[in-house]
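I can't quite decide. Please look over this sequence plus structure tokens:

:::
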Amino acid sequence: MSILSTRHLMTMDDLSIADIETILDRADLHAAANASGPGTKKHGSLRGQTIVNLFLEPSTRTRTSFEIAGKRLGADVINISGSASSIAKGESLVDTAQTLDAMDTDMVVIRARAAGSPQIVRRNIRGSVINAGDGKHEHPTQALLDLHTMRANFGRIAGLRVAIVGDIAHSRVVGSLARVLGRLGASVVVAGPPAFLPARPDVLGVEVAASVDEAIYGADVVYLLRIQLERLGSLQLLPSLREYARFWGMNSQRLAALAPHTVIMHPGPMNRGVEITQEVADSIPARVLNQVNSGVAVRMAIMELLLANCAEDLSPIAAKELVNA
């Protein structure tokens, strides 16, 4: 089933390979238009649509890129944070969703600490819903922008070797990205402290390396993750951040050992000096800002696909007119 018919994006499992290719191809067009200058960034494909960004968890990149994406498509975009909503007063997520539905909202983009929150909103609203990250579960639009960044760099996904290093067990990014990379023909190896590794790596379709150096050897992409301190609570899983940086961080010595074509990615926010040093974050192989740039284009593509009245609205002719506008 296509997202054109379901009109929601909850998890990467909602997307067929054809859906993913459609999103990435459409994002290519938006990326080109965004880079062409002020006159080509905006168009009115979603004029008259109302999009609510309901962010119940802090965010910089995801929230801002969704807002920019919606506005560039001509939609009316409303931002609601957890502290500024009635949820802070004790209102349930169900009541919040039903309230937004009563206002004829066309789309809700939700980020929340609790896994399953987007599904609750979906059941209580007539409009489209996008999961912008729910707990440790998934972050599908992050995975899509990562795929877009990789494809823009290598021209393909199939055959790539991707090393994911860091807090694997508590990352919703891994939940979305690792499995879809396998579906698209890439291989994934993960590395991190034992307490940060998944209990069932086979479910993610990944192999586990004993060290960072083993994981990054021969990798086309080194994908770094920060420690999810906000999800660990009072658990003390590491002796110190200094020790983590020494054994698991990406530093100049490990950078020098990479193949010349290898790129370094990070979903942000980066903790410089912990999982990534200053030199690596600002190095030529780093593609962190490319990921941010891809995020706007990819989210524009997803919003269009979910809110388009019919498939003809996104025809190749319309796409060509977009770039030449």
In short: DSSP finds 16 helices and ten strands in the chain. Residues 140-290 form a domain with the Rossmann fold fold (CATH 3.40.50.1370). The chain has two domains: 8-138+291-310, 140-290.
